């Protein structure tokens, strides 16, 4: 809402603050470490043949703890137990191998509960949204994320300039052992961000030998290469693993895919071709006639597909190094550590900006051409003939993390787990563009040496064109993270149903964000915004598991019943305290049937990119008013607009109430069959969003009335802008002349304005059957949305999103088998279509259902061929285009690179 903002305008010393955070972590870890009071057996070596193996499809991960009583499954603090009342979805190494993807982002796009399922996740060279954010349940978030992404149960440092989101693409699939996803609120265990759920990447830790992997893929106008090398040694009491991974892929331009063409009239749709074209279009203000260059025929209009040469999918190169170390220091103490370094370089081609028809040329310009009676013409012009059809943006996102920890057995089955976690990311974005201020000045110039000739750009002084083309949007940010955590868990008392288990813990979290944005000629930083912010969070948490019935006292109709409760308190240095509980139950009326449910509250604290630390905070001045109320006058178009943009220091946490109820059934009459279903319900409120700046609803909906002032006075504008950086004007006072004043002042900063109610059913059916020739497997898993309602602003009625723009069903169906050394699988990714409103003749968007094939063959296990696996992936085998959508992009409800064929070779030495 409009009030005087508080801003930071000086880049603070992030490094010193980060060192202070690291020092606090070091002190905490030193305090955590203690003597051992009990003994455990040393870790056993892992057989080479099993070190890289796993089984199963996407499935509920309830059996993980049967193989390792020391494992901690995502969604609980307790060792050796599945999270009570919770549905945990997982992918193992076999699942990962079959996808043939080169990054963890692409891996998550295969999971129906994740919002970008069935798409091609695209990280761009932009400081706005360069990081693809996993989003379970597709809940809104601004600079942060409503889905928590973890690495081995701990957080990772964020990435981006205007984001603090974790970038999963830093993890190559080669280092991932499995992925566990909890599509429930998880703040009672993990704290902030876990509203939609938790994604936990568990990495490989033990491996003997050397393994190499290389894969090459190709599609129409596209190539991709990825390779990795892993070396490991397991010496019984410990192990060391090192992996280097490289990935590169080419770009795909819009012109390479027909479905992105701007003109949809051939399909009965709209022509979205631009009038910003070479040669230009010039409109006489008196007659309204347009004259298209270079012939300038009265009434002619030139149109072009201005985005044809822009990237649909940008070029990218990634390098990653990952290391894991474990060592049994004594019978009771185990040390472990993981570390990673990753760098992603992205190159994006974007259409060369031009003059979009709101800028004018007058008779004062020496090159003015009187095409009509008016001495003023509106200009729509492309600079493609001078600078080419595209301009290049480059970005580099580099990060590292180090996480050492100890496991200490302290008596009976009690264990202390301590962990430190530090990380840092460096983020740089360079967006080449044109200097719009120089364009305006050159059009308004009366001097032929400094004026722009829009009718014939070649006749313009080259120095003028060089000044116009010498401009860059520069963004740089450093994000840092430091954490210390201790958890103690064990058995309190033995009941007939089993042991009552307790886990308690504490955590210290520190993060900072230092960012800078400038809009200047290349190498100049005078017009820049710099900011710094940090926060610390002190947390305490606990979890209690009570087995009411179990092996000792269970019977028919009551084989087992377990209750759990967890609670977490987080004290934010900048947002105060919050307490989030969760309760759950798991009930087994029979050995083959499990019924489970849970209820909890969750929250997402405003990220540092959403509050005062954001470097995009500014007052943006437009010399016209393209966004107006329905009762505005035609002359209001030529009045200035003041837009407050960027972060908001008054943001509150986003909150949610979540609950679910489901079952897992393994019928004895059908060995190998697993059937699971879960009803989920999420009420997400205080969503951090930006008011709909470009939509008429801003002025027609009374709920947005506090976000704008029509005809603001000078005093109102000065109070609202405060000391924010001005873009587009020298001062607020300069906007108030004797005959013209600003039309509207809009507060477009991030605000707590929305709410979402969503409920549905997650389902999973898997069948695995050994046969005389090998095995067959069938599976279908997905999510079906029963209701999804959105409240745009507080006080508004909830609107049914399923009636406009949202599909109900997303699912994956697989069928495969193994015959000897040969494995094959077919996979259908399905996104249901949906109705659309307000798009003329189009009433519905179709479904997207590409089919992928996977084949592998293990060469004979002898001689030089021993340990060699050949793989073949054919994604989108029928080369399906995503569904048509009568908007500028031309498509929606899915994404694809086309028919992508990838051949791979994996070799163990």
TrEMBL record:
Q: Boundaries of each TonB-dependent receptor plug domain copy?
A: 88-198
Positions of the TonB-dependent receptor-like beta-barrel domain? 347-877
The UniProt keywords, alphabetically, are: Cell outer membrane, Membrane, Receptor, Signal, TonB box, Transmembrane, Transmembrane beta strand, Transport
The record's subcellular location field reads: Cell outer membrane
Q: How does it sit in the membrane?
A: Multi-pass membrane protein
Tell me which positions the record assigns to the signal sequence: 1-38
Which GO terms of the cellular component aspect does the record hold? cell outer membrane
The UniProt entry, under Pfam families, shows:
Plug (PF07715), TonB_dep_Rec_b-barrel (PF00593)
Which family does the entry's similarity section mention? Answer: Belongs to the TonB-dependent receptor family.
Name used for this protein in its record: TonB-dependent receptor
């Amino acid at each position: 809402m409009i009030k005087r903002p508080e801003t930071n305008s000086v880049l603070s010393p992030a490094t010193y603050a980060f060192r202070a955070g690291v020092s606090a972590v070091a002190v905490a870890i030193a305090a955590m470490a203690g003597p051992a009071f009990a003994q455990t057996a040393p870790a056993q070596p892992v057989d080479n043949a099993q070190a890289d193996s796993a089984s199963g499809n996407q499935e509920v991960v309830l059996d993980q703890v049967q193989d390792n009583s020391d494992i901690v499954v995502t969604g609980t603090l307790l060792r050796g137990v599945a999270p009570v009342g919770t549905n945990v979805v997982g992918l193992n190494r076999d699942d990962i191998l079959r996808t043939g993807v080169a990054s963890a982002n692409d891996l998550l796009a295969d999971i129906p509960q994740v919002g970008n399922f069935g798409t091609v996740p695209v990280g761009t060279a932009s400081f706005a949204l360069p990081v693809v954010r996993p989003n379970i349940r597709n809940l809104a978030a601004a600079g942060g994320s409503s889905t928590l992404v973890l690495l081995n149960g701990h957080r990772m440092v964020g990435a981006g300039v205007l984001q603090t989101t974790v970038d999963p693409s830093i993890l190559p699939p080669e280092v991932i052992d499995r992925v566990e996803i909890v599509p429930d609120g998880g703040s009672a265990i993990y704290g902030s961000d876990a509203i939609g759920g938790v994604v936990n990447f568990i990495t490989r830790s033990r491996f003997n030998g050397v393994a190499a992997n290389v894969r090459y893929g190709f599609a129409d106008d596209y190539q991709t290469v990825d390779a990795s090398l892993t070396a490991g040694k397991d010496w019984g009491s410990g192990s060391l693993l090192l992996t280097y991974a490289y990935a590169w892929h080419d770009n795909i331009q819009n012109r390479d895919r027909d479905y992105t063409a701007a003109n949809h009239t051939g399909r009965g749709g709209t022509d979205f071709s631009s009038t910003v074209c070479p040669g230009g279009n010039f409109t006489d203000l008196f007659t309204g006639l347009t004259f298209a260059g270079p012939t300038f025929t009265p009434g002619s209009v030139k149109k072009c597909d201005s985005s044809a040469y822009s990237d649909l999918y940008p070029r990218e190169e990634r390098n990653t190094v990952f290391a894991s170390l474990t060592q049994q220091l004594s019978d009771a103490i185990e040390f472990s550590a993981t570390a990673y370094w990753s760098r992603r370089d992205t190159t994006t081609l974007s259409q060369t900006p031009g003059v979009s028809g709101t800028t004018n040329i007058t008779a004062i310009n020496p090159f003015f051409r009187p095409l009509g009676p008016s001495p003023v013409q509106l200009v729509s012009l492309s600079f493609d003939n001078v600078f080419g059809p595209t301009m290049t943006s480059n970005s580099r996102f580099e990060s590292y993390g180090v996480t050492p920890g100890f496991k200490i057995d302290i008596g009976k089955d009690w264990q202390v787990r301590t962990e430190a976690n530090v990380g840092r990311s460096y983020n740089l974005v360079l967006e080449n563009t044109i200097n719009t201020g120089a364009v305006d000045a050159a059009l308004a110039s009366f001097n032929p040496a400094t004026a722009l000739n829009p009718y014939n750009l070649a006749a313009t002084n080259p120095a003028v064109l060089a000044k116009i083309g010498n401009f860059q949007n520069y963004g740089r940010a450093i994000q840092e993270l430091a954490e210390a955590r201790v958890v103690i868990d064990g058995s309190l008392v033995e009941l007939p149903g089993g042991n009552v288990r307790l886990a308690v813990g504490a955590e210290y979290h520190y993060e900072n964000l230092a960012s800078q944005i400038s809009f200047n000629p290349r190498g100049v930083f005078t017009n820049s915004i710099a900011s710094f912010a940090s926060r610390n969070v002190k947390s305490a948490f606990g979890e209690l598991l009570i087995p009411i019935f179990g092996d000792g006292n269970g019977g028919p109709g009551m084989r087992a019943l377990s209750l759990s409760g967890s609670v977490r308190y987080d004290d934010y240095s900048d947002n105060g305290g919050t307490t989030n509980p969760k309760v759950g139950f798991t009930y087994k009326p029979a050995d083959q049937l499990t019924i489970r449910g849970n209820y909890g509250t969750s929250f997402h604290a405003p990220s540092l990119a959403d509050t005062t630390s954001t470097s995009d905070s500014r007052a943006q001045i437009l010399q016209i008013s393209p966004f107006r109320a329905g009762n505005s006058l035609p002359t209001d178009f030529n009045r200035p607009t003041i837009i407050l943009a960027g972060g908001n220091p008054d943001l509150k946490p986003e909150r949610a109430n979540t609950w679910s109820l489901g079952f897992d059934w393994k019928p004895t009459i059908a060995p190998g069959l697993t059937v699971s279903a879960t009803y989920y319900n999420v009420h997400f409120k205080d969503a951090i969003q930006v008011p709909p700046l470009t939509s008429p609803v801003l002025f027609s909906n009374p709920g947005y009335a506090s976000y704008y002032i029509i005809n603001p006075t000078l005093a109102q504008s000065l109070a609202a802008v405060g000391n924010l950086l001005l873009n587009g004007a020298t001062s607020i006072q300069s906007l108030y002349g004797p005959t013209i004043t600003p039309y509207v002042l809009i507060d477009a900063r991030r605000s707590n304005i929305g709410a979402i109610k969503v409920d549905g059913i997650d389902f999973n059916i898997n069948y695995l059957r050994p046969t005389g020739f090998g095995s067959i497997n069938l599976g279908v898993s997905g999510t079906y949305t029963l209701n999804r309602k959105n409240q745009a602003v507080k006080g508004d009625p909830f609107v049914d999103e399923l009636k406009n723009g949202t599909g109900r069903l997303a699912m994956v169906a697989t069928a495969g088998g193994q015959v000897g050394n040969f494995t094959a699988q077919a996979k259908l990714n399905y996104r249901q279509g949906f109705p659309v409103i307000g798009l003329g003749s189009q009433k519905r968007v179709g479904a997207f259902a590409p089919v992928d094939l996977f084949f592998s063959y293990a060469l004979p296990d002898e001689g030089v061929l021993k340990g060699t696996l050949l793989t073949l992936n054919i994604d989108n085998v029928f080369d399906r285009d995503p569904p048509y959508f009568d908007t500028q992009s031309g498509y929606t409800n899915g994404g694809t690179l086309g028919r992508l064929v990838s051949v791979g070779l994996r070799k163990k030495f």
